[in-house]
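Support reply, case 0932

Customer input (verbatim):
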Amino acid sequence: LVELGHTSIGIAAGQANLTSTIHRIEGIRTVVEAAGGHVHVAHALPDREGGRRAARQLLDQEPALTAIVGTADQLAIGAMHWLQDQGIAVADDVSVAGFNDIPAALDVRPTLTTVRLPLRDMGAAALNLGLGGRTAANTSTEFKPELVVRGSTRHRDASASTTATTPTMSATGTGETPVRAKSRISRQAGSK
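Our regenerated output:
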């Protein structure tokens, strides 16, 4: 989103004490603030209704937001519906992105830009760590997420230009992406 010119970004965040939520907020905040932008966070239940509530809260707090990121796709989809109910055009007025690439990300209009995680690989690694017993102490495995660019995000100034196009990325995820965070499954010494 930063590469698309967004500097005032809201985060529709799930549970405040959930590790994945904490890491996603930290990662987004780091990138946005490094680019001179500002992040606003609204916590809600991690479902569509929570996304609607978070979007309303975020825009009440900061009407100049140009993008909202849901820490889960359900939150992002709820935010999209709320924006559309208010007459705010998703992508043209406010870009929206999520995490997890759930099937419903393809069912909404515009389709949802999202971060796809290698969930099967992560599950297999977690199982291997769990079955490894104490010999797996201090083991850490990192996974590379993939940004899947779809119709819900657009360059901030794209609506002002008739020649603007939405940036895309290959399905293989080659090239540098704005996703800089890594997903990690870890087992610390002494943990069960």
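We compared this against your earlier run and they match. Two observations from our side: The helical segments are 19-34, 48-61, 73-85, 119-131. The chain has four helices and eight strands. Please reopen the case if you see a mismatch on your end.
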